[in-house]
Amino acid sequence: xxxxxxxxxxxxxxxxxxxxxxxxxxxxxxxxxxxxxxxxxxxxxxxxxxxxxxxxxxxxxxxxxxxxxxxxxxxxxxxxxxxxxxxxxxxxxxxxxxxxxxxxxxxxxxxxxxxxxxxxxxxxxxxxxxxxxxxxxxxxxxxxxxxxxxxxxxxxxxxxxxxxxxxxxxxxxxxxxxxxxxxxxxxxxxxxxxxxxxxxxxxxxxxxxxxxxxxxxxxxxxxxxxxxxxxxxxxxxxxxxxxxxxxxxxxxxxxxxxxxxxxxxxxxxxxxxxxxxxxxxxxxxxxxxxxxxxxxxxxxxxxxxxxxxxxxxxxxxxxxxxxxxxxxxxxxxxxxxxxxxxxxxxxxxxxxxxxxxxxxxxxxxxxxxxxxxxxxxxxxxxxxxxxxxxxxxxxxxxxxxxxxxxxxxxxxxxxxxxxxxxxxxxxxxxxxxxxxxxxxxxxxxxxxxxxxxxxxxxxxxxxxxxxxxxxxxxxxxxxxxxxxxxxxxxxxxxxxxxxxxxxxxxxxxxxxxxxxxxxxxxxxxxxxxxxxxxxxxxxxxxxxxxxxxxxxxxxxxxxxxxxxxxxxxxxxxxxxxxxxxxxxxxxx
Length: 588
Prior knowledge:
By secondary structure, the protein is α+β, with helices and mostly antiparallel strands. The protein contains 16 helices and 34 strands. Helix content is about 25%, strand content about 30%. Helix 2 packs across helix 12. The longest helix has 21 residues, at about 185-205. The chain is globular, with a radius of gyration of 30 Å.
């Protein structure tokens, strides 16, 4: 327990203590589910009066929503400070030229808001801050004696989402905590990475979130490795797989599976053309030929480095273009109809690898040694049977090119199988290496006087997204179920009937005593029917409800109810404050 530095006190780690009357607060609850809200957390944030929509992807935080948001921010700050990071605040408005120096302007310009200043200089609203913080380090860090250093901020970010949806989950303006570590060596950088990884575990535990840590692709950020902190939820926009027998878990973009060679039946027949009039898709051809889609070789024509590329995968699998890009050496794009016809001599839907010329061919590892397969014949309305990869496509390269799926073998333990899940990404940690420090000249002298680019790490938490993810994971049919640590108020004290003077007096006395003890209290002093008050209490999800009414007083005191498990008890009035404080502590 820390020292008291102001009004109120500390209960556990949490600095709290304020009373607000409902009649003086802005809590515009809604009975009906807003049509714009697709997932439970978005619906509940609107219904409980936490946020209001201004425009697509833009939201105003109302008082209760802001209180919870500030509590999330406080937890983030405490754990970042505990891990040794230094808080700074960088500009949201950034010159476009620093993005051009790292080569990321071309990659991310489609999500940037851009403008010209009075000097006709091109500016962007930052979707992230790697370029800015690296420029800062380049000017301030010059010696090994100044590292390790880790700078963090809690700042507004801007991304021009094509289709903002799910409330704060995919917004145009959002609040993010981003941190950046700078070290002399990879070994030191690994220690900085682990410190942030551990801090993230603590942050999400304190916010009341159950997270799954998964291996992830580094994407436009670059770097050598990354992990995502995911909240498992049916409404999650990200796919992932996890092993049922070991700890392996990965984002679908990054995930692997142990490749089990197919049990092939002997098939020595030469490729045979078969007419498939009007059947161009795998589904259509498999139905026409009464063959399992897994027996097909799906052939997709891409364009990579301005050259055609044929990509082959089993007919029941989809190409993972992130994996493909790593093998192809360039970002591949699906070829247009004209290029497909130029390469194959056939319309789209009838491409196959047999006889392709002047075209690089990359096949998924699951096709290595495959025989007796069906594929397009590079002729309209025609397919080939009895295709053997080794015999008929001898020049193919092989790599893992597809997304894993439910039931695939685990790549780590070998015994378990993978299960598909959906998740909400709330945090992401990256080992960036020297990508940005080399581009922006952030280097330091070692103890031998030799200049080295600083080795960087990057660590992000979606603060507003985390708030909504808590609700997505913790709610029921009646409303939100807040964890004590980030609830807008810890206790709601309700005078069931404001016309009953004794109930009002006792409710106010209890609320005042709780405030003196450092507890955040919301007093429902509205002249409303009891049913309305109880429904609103469940909707808001304050962790502990204290009801004072004629019925409870006749039963011997005041009623306490835990929002999470519904546990209720009537305690004598003179014992109420002590009992409430004990419950508050137990729920932290």
